[in-house]
Amino acid sequence: MLGIAARRLGIDCVFLDPAESCTADLVGERIRADYDDPDALAELARRCDVVTYEFENVPATSAASLARTVPVRPGWNSLETSQDRLVEKRFLVEHGVPVRPFHPVDDATSLAAAITGIGTPAILKTRRGGYDGKGQVVLRDPDAASGAIDAIEGRPAILEAMIDFDLEASVLVARGVDGATRAWPPIRNRHAAGILRRSECPAPGVSTRAGSAMVDHAVRIAEALDHVGVLTVEFFVTGDEVLVNEIAPRVHNSGHLTIEFSETDQFENHVRAVTGDTLGSTEARHGQGIMLNAIGDSPSPRALVEARVATADEAGVVTPDGDPDGEAVYHGYHKTPRIGRKVGHLTITGDAIDPTRSDALASIVPGAVAD
């Protein structure tokens, strides 16, 4: 989707990805190699005016190596900070951003000390890697600690307190080379089995005070990192109080709804930011937007047509076979279906979305959840 946005702006893309099959092949040229391959990195640097990344599990050393000859945005600092959960938490605390209690864990002894300090229930996470609930172990009581280290294969970890909260939400902010920022309104997120299923904006249940605090924290984090591009900050919200859960130095699944919902979507503003262009408006084009993730498989073409849903092709062009007004649009990712894999998303927009309509659409999207 970054490639689609770049092409819409008249920018050609060259991708680096080791996969045998890659959806990026639909929108640009690709160098097939590992992310730390010196020859591939050198070729990428030669062929590009600026380099960016769409997920944080690439070596920070590769970003640093590329940065010697070509601008890399966001910089290695954003990448390095977000790759290690302990480094990230300490960075947030250092900059006055509220987080839940945490403790480093390297072995069974330090885990016992962490449980003594934090208590249970708590969640043990590997410091590096893991997403959508992977690399995590929930400890309901101290006795659960006995097999926890083995469950994460003895990897360095962090123990975080499990807290009661009202809801989860995210804020995306774009920051340009000149330091200018544009934030989208808070987005409410709903998960199941550790995977994002549904996002909604404006975020129901988020007060004006909490929303303002979330945007302020997101902008502060972006500035502290000297981040260029889109940054996503995930929050726990309880009344007017917010705690940062984690940050992602990139465009984010919860922000996919901005394609139809916002004046400028997250992908276009990321491209604008990293290429030194002026950021676009993040104002809403509609009164309400809902995004439903397709998990494991896509809805059938027949179901989409019968439900009056338009479809976006590999170039992002919407074909209004089902919905000529574009009120509901399905984006398929051209990925092989697999259990737990995000293979597409459906976005619904309108002045006020009828819950009956959104629930009906959720029923045809595998893995989605109704309101």
Number-wise, the strands total 17
Counting helices, strands and paired strands, the structural category is: alpha+beta
Unreliable stretches:
none
Q: What would you say the CATH architecture of the largest domain is?
A: 2-Layer Sandwich
Instruction: Specify the helix fraction band.
Output: 25-40%
Q: Main β-sheet, in a few words?
A: 11 strands, mixed
Chain-averaged pLDDT? 94
- How many individual helices? 12
Q: Indicate how many domains the architecture comprises.
A: 3
Cα end-to-end separation: 27 Å
Q: What percent strand?
A: 25-35%
- The CATH topology of the largest domain, please? D-amino Acid Aminotransferase, Chain A, domain 1
Order of helices and strands: HEEHHHHEHEEHEEEEEHEEHHEHEEEEH
Top CATH class of the largest domain = Alpha Beta
Radius of gyration: 21 Å
CATH superfamily of the largest domain: ATP-grasp fold, B domain
Describe this structure in words.
- With 371 residues, the protein is an alpha+beta fold.
- It has three domains: 2-83, 3-Layer(aba) Sandwich (Rossmann fold), CATH 3.40.50; 101-161, ATP-grasp fold, A domain (Dna Ligase, domain 1), CATH 3.30.1490.20; 167-362, ATP-grasp fold, B domain (D-amino Acid Aminotransferase, Chain A, domain 1).
- 27% of the residues lie in helices and 25% in strands.
- It contains twelve helices and 17 strands.
- It has helices spanning 2-8, 38-47, 60-66, 76-83, 85-94, 108-118, 148-151, 208-225, 258-261, 266-274, 301-306, 355-362; strands at residues 14-16, 29-31, 102-105, 122-126, 136-139, 157-161, 167-175, 181-183, 187-192, 195-201, 229-238, 241-248, 288-295, 310-312, 318-319, 328-332, 342-350.
- The strands form three sheets. Strands 7, 8, 9, 10, 11, 12, 13, 14, 15, 16 and 17 form an eleven-stranded mixed β-sheet that branches. A four-stranded antiparallel β-sheet has the order 3-6-4-5, sandwiched between helices.
- Strand 14 and strand 15 (318-319) form a beta hairpin.
- Helix 4 (76-83) crosses helix 5 (85-94).
- The longest helix has 18 residues, at 208-225.
- It is globular and about 60 Å long.
- It starts with a helix and ends in a 9-residue tail after the last helix.
- The model has no long low-confidence stretch (mean pLDDT 94).
